[in-house]
Amino acid sequence: MLGVPRGADEKAIKDTFRALALKYHPDRNKEPGAEERFKEIAEAYAVLSDPKKRADYDSAGFAGIAGFSPEDLFGGVDFDSIFADLGFGLGGGIFDRFFRRRAAGPVPGEDIEIVATVPLSTIASGGEHRIRFARVAVCPDCKGSGAKRGTRPRACTSCGGTGLKTTSRREQGVFIQQSTPCPDCRGRGTIVEHACPTCAATGRTEVDESLIVKIPAGADEGLVLRVPAKGHPSPDTEGRAGDLLVIVRSAGDPRFQRDGADLVHESEIEVADAVLGGELSVPTLDGSITVKIPAGTQPESELRLRGKGLPRFGGRGDLYVRLAVRLPERLTADERKLWERLRALGAKS
Q: CB count, 10 Å around CB of 348?
């Protein structure tokens, strides 16, 4: 199920689940099929982490757990605590979002997606990052009613406050009823006689907001941080607001190119250093270090500095130093003589 050995202990199961869940969580992985794979992983963990369910599965395979409802399967799993040490809500109500049917009730507001371009230094160590965004909010003056302060909307007499106009007719012995939005109140069920000057009777206004989000160390490119209730308001008075989805992107850095948890740095070296070997100062996330250039280094060779990349689950990535050999464009007379001697020596060998 999770790819762990049959006798794997609780820690091994939990560590394997966490690594796979981080890889396939739909807020982090937008590839097709990632959400379905995540659900399979979560279901497998729910079975293997519970001794009774695991015994049922070991004895009868999938038939032993076929009768479980989502509530039975996930009721005892605290996903949030499993990811709490990461500093962001990967749990985030996973059970409610993916495994429980949405309850009938007011329609939630729409989510907002924004991109946060975060410096590599913040991604390397984790930390706070301020974001700014615009969203629709309930008008603070009329509290969403659309009516001027001190007044209230009145019920629409055309639809009796229902917001719907119902017409009935009989065709070929069949009684037909049809409901359409009331044209007088435009489906709201109320009519505003004294409009709120702040929102022009819409009950909504656009606001600019600023808040700080916590970037986890080693945040993946495209990681989505979910901020509850910071999206657009629900069209229903009693509905909850949508969420704010913050998509993390790495800011450009003149020193490095990012490749997952690995970093690439490009350096030029002299021909003599490539042939004879030498030393090179290389920037890292923790400051510059000196590395040795092996004798006989070829153009476009790479030096691998283990553990000098970004944090990742279970360790750190590597830093690759890509070497370009700098060829002289102009030679002095003495330099030309030396190069000609080298060419002659090469021809003899």
A: 6
Would you give the DSSP letter of residue 187?
T
Note whether 140 and 197 are within 8 A (CB): no
- Residue 317 carries which DSSP code? -
| Greater pLDDT, 96 or 129 | 129
Q: Which domain CATH number covers 326?
A: 2.60.260.20
Expressed as residue numbers, the domain containing 333 is 257-348
DSSP states of 91-146 as a string? STTHIIIIISPPPSSSPPPPPEEEEEEE-HHHHHH-EEEEEEEEEEEE-TTTTTS-
- Grouping H, G, I as helix, E, B as strand and the rest as coil, residue 215 is strand
Query: Which of 4, 28, 26 is closest to 14 using CA atoms?
Result: 4
On whether both 94 and 221 belong to a single domain, the answer is no
Higher pLDDT, 62 or 290: 290
* Sign of the dihedral defined by the CA atoms of residues 211, 216, 217, 223, in that order: negative
